[in-house]
Amino acid sequence: SFTSICSPIFGMVGCLIPAWLVYKVPALHKYKGASLYLIIITGLLLCVSPFLAFS
After folding, report:
1. d(CA 27, CA 51)
2. Number of domains observed in the structure of the chain
3. What does DSSP assign to residue 33?
4. 3-class SS at 11?
5. Whole-prediction pTM value?
6. What is one process in the GO biological process aspect for this record (predicted)?
7. Is residue 36 exposed (0-12), middle (13-18) or buried (19+ Cβ within 10 Å)?
8. Is the Cβ–Cβ distance between 32 and 22 less than 8 Å?
């Protein structure tokens, strides 16, 4: 389905790339914290979920 195909894209664009930018861009370092780890976990789950659904 559409969700299982696009879920990794949503995880990368919506969670993992912004989290990576928070770590790399000095102006965004103020956003580091526990919520950033939740965003990273959510992005990883979105990327892995299609593989779990097909198994």
Report:
1. 36
2. 1
3. S
4. helix
5. 0.85
6. amino acid transmembrane transport
7. middle
8. yes
